[in-house]
Amino acid sequence: MNARVRLPVHTDQHAPSYYAASANRRIDYPPLAGEELADVCIVGGGFSGLNTAIELAQRGLSVALLEARQIGWGASGRNGGQLIRGVGHGVEQFEPVIGAEGVRALKLMGLEAVEIVRQRVEQFAIDCDLTWGYCDLANRPRDLEGFAADKAELESLGYRHELRLVQPGEMRSVVGSDRYVGGLIDMGSGHLHPLNLALGEAAAAASLGVRLFEHSTVTRIDYGAEVKVHTAHGHVRAKTLVLGCNAYLNNLNPALGGKVLPAGSYVIATEPLSRELAHELLPQNMAVCDQRVALDYYRLSADHRLLFGGACHYSGRDPADIETYMRPKMLKVFPQLEHVRVDFQWGGMIGIGANRLPQIGRLADQPNVYFAQAYSGHGLNATHLAGKLLAEAISGQQCHGFDIFAKVPHMTFPGGRYLRSPLLALGMAWYRLKEAVGVV
């Protein structure tokens, strides 16, 4: 399948990505028809919904999950596949709200999140090309100084995986490019095939008794002590509702939707490379990411393609041709790929919050309605953490982690549904300009 032919964004089929072309299982769940009763109804069949469902089912609750299109259709099945420690950006900013211990807890949960993925893959024997090894790439000397501080902090938190600073003269051992001045290797982070992970987690949820329904767009929600969630051909009645739609919440709940900005992110995948060329590009088969505002992230697939992503767009408009947009960025890093063919190009929406901390909590006016969204580029691990925290809170367990996230306030983006993206695009353009002249 060649992604030069792009499917329209409204299609119910998976994006024409390398992931869809290399999915290792096909699953089909029926649309909702008639009435279903459940302890919990979950809206959204991505990592947030799937992992909340698994965690709830393991605690003995009955769950019905509604997905508007197909399992993993959104960011969960399209992302760069980078499994990186941490949640949020600069979590020290939240100390006035959650205290120093709360900040420390957020940092520890950012490490736990990756371990939840590791355990999920092992427990259910999910074949998703999970590979350990990641490197943060320094664009400037002061980035490398920051990595040294990151390393020291991780060690103070008891991080159990290997961390190693990479000096300028050693960078060719990590990446075959002269673009970087150092790095921080983290052997507790890595990369995987995200769609195969999502499909494996859906199968795991079903094995635990979760009822999954695809092609079941929610049209209306009746709130109350019992929620009633409507689709075109049926409804679910449940004691508790979880909204796990992230950037694809649309107008289902305007109050929540105003706190998350859908932003486009894009990936291209080359033809399979020779083992020699693949080794030249990424000698240790690590996932990597640079430190710029308009960051590059890339890695190798199991069949030796380079998957190169980035170019976060806040304008709400996709590039007319993703390959034409992304290929020059790839060649700046790897000019040796000038004559290599690009086989796949795709994009999707990630959810950005104003403070870049995942939004995990419950509605103030509807205490039986929970939500998780706005992972701001850390979704692969943070969604799995969110599922655990939501399940703890819903099942009545001690939920210290959930309470910490729920205490943090989240701003509604100004400008309403149609203006907030252009306004933020202007702000990000200004930030990139400052970066270009060395102000940030």
TrEMBL record:
Gene3D superfamilies in alphabetical order: D-Amino Acid Oxidase, subunit A, domain 2, FAD/NAD(P)-binding domain
Domain spans labelled FAD dependent oxidoreductase: 39-392
Cross-referenced Pfam families: DAO
Alphabetically ordered keywords of this record: Oxidoreductase
SUPFAM superfamilies, A to Z: FAD/NAD(P)-binding domain
Name of the molecule in the record: FAD-binding oxidoreductase
Origin organism lineage: Bacteria, Pseudomonadati, Pseudomonadota, Gammaproteobacteria, Pseudomonadales
